[in-house]
Amino acid sequence: MLKQPIFIVGHPRSGTSLVRSLIERSEHVWSIGREGKPIWERDGLHPSRRGWHSNALDASDATPEVAARLDADLLAAARRPGAEWSVDDKLDYLDFISAQGPQPYYYDVPLKALRQRFPGELPEGPPTTRDGGELDEITPFCFPPRGPRPTEAELADGIRLVEKSIQSCFRIPFLQALYPDAKYVFVVRDPRTSIGSLMDAWLNPRMFFSYPVPEPLRIKGYSDVFPWGKEWWNLSLPPGWRDWVDLPLAEVCARNWLAHNRAVLDAARALAPTGNSVLVRYEDVQADPVATMEAVAEAVDLPFADAWGRRDLPVVMTQTVPDPDKWRRHEQEIRQVLPLVADLAEEAGYDRA
User: Fold this and answer.
1) What is the DSSP string of 222-275?
2) Which of 123, 172, 175, 257 yields a CA-CA distance of 20 to 30 A from 236?
3) Domain definitions of the chain by residue range
4) What is the CATH number that goes with domain 6-84+146-347?
5) Each residue of 196-207: pLDDT tens digit?
């Protein structure tokens, strides 16, 4: 069974993968090693089964049947996090499986390393099923955890699973109904770097495709750039997304930041009196991971791990090396939309300027 699961909640490209990787250095947690979309969106919970409204779910969706199915699927996917994959490890694994058909360029490996090991023409466009449909997984595809599955005795005693999915921003009431004893780590990030990273995600020709939506997209800077840009929505699907289909890409990303972080801050405020949550800023994780993890460990009831005493951070990468100034590639467009997010940015602890 699951006990006190730890949900990491933040907008896409906010640093939730980094926080998850840090928590997974604890010997007391288990992981599914990837985004949970394939698990959460089965059996009627996919947006297509709900009028394409959004990724939002509430307590009424947490039926006994849904709860039992989710428990079974999460427990079946649980592994010990194990050692982190090196770039060479990833390339060796892709060497093995690419002979069986999977395309290496849709995996989370530095692009330069991929090109050295797998020369040839780069693929572009969303990866799909054999009939051209949506995959359960959102690229970049991840690598499985290396540790063992829980034993029957461990399952009977209850395991602590760490889970992070970008859609969770809009599902806190649903998660609370399913797991009343859950702990939450909310993550926020500076809107400038966030919006820049979101724009890079939308403009990546191989990554982050989530849904072929029924509403035609006319997003300037995306729909007029790629042949798939008139149909494929990227990352999570926030409430109100249909109102954004005629906006420029920078504004779509700014409104994404606004919608996700409004939900995050509201949930963090509501849960603060319970002592079952903590709100962290990505910048604080980068600047002082030891102090940040001390606060996280206390909030989620984990013993402080020796590994958190190191200042080295896991490398979370999507084909390009992390760089705090990457957003400046879109600086002019981002500065034009910053007024949209200024109030909420200040509420999240960022300078309005």
Assistant:
1) TTTT-GGGGTEEES---TTGGGGTTSBHHHHHHHHHHHHHHHHHHHHHHHGGGT
2) 123
3) 6-84+146-347
4) 3.40.50
5) 999 999 999 999
